[in-house]
Write a structure and sequence with these properties.
about 150 residues; 9 strands; single chain; globular
Length: about 150
């Protein structure tokens, strides 16, 4: 069962963590909105076997607001916030939660494949670029690592 906690009682914001079965009702609409509709990523690229083996976080008010996941190899990904809720610190909140989960699972480091326009977000959170930029799902990405 997902583990939920209140983040902001005024607007009913809650953050939850758990497995795909616990959080897919939050994760699916957010990822469909952000990655498939907004960014044009193919749905066959969006939904993969990592969902079932990853730890997920979800952010919700009365509606799904954001999501992200931690894969078994330490990769944090699919971090996304619906368009009208951006700029409020929700991405950082979920990133912090995913890092806390990683630490509790004894990971010594995590990594992301950051889209170009998200590199500053990860840099501010302590991630460091490694290697060259590469194309993933027709978009430029940069691998970035954070060591605990």
């Amino acid at each position: 069962k997902a583990n939920w906690k209140s983040v902001n009682q005024e607007n009913g914001l809650n953050i939850g963590s758990g497995c795909w079965q616990d959080l897919n009702k939050i994760a699916m609409p957010v990822r469909e909105s952000v990655f498939i509709s907004e960014q044009g990523i193919n749905s066959s690229d969006e939904w993969d076997h990592f969902d079932n083996v990853s730890q997920h976080v979800g952010l919700k008010t009365h509606h799904p607001v954001g999501t992200g996941r931690l894969a078994p190899d330490g990769r944090i990904g699919r971090l996304s916030v619906i368009k009208n809720q951006r700029g409020l610190g929700y991405g950082r909140m979920m990133l912090n939660e995913l890092e806390t989960i990683a630490i509790s699972l004894n990971f010594k480091q995590v990594y992301v494949h950051s889209q170009s326009d998200a590199q500053l977000f990860y840099k501010k959170a302590g991630y460091v670029k490694t290697g060259n930029e590469f194309i993933e799902c027709k978009k430029l990405h940069q691998k970035m690592i954070k060591i605990f």
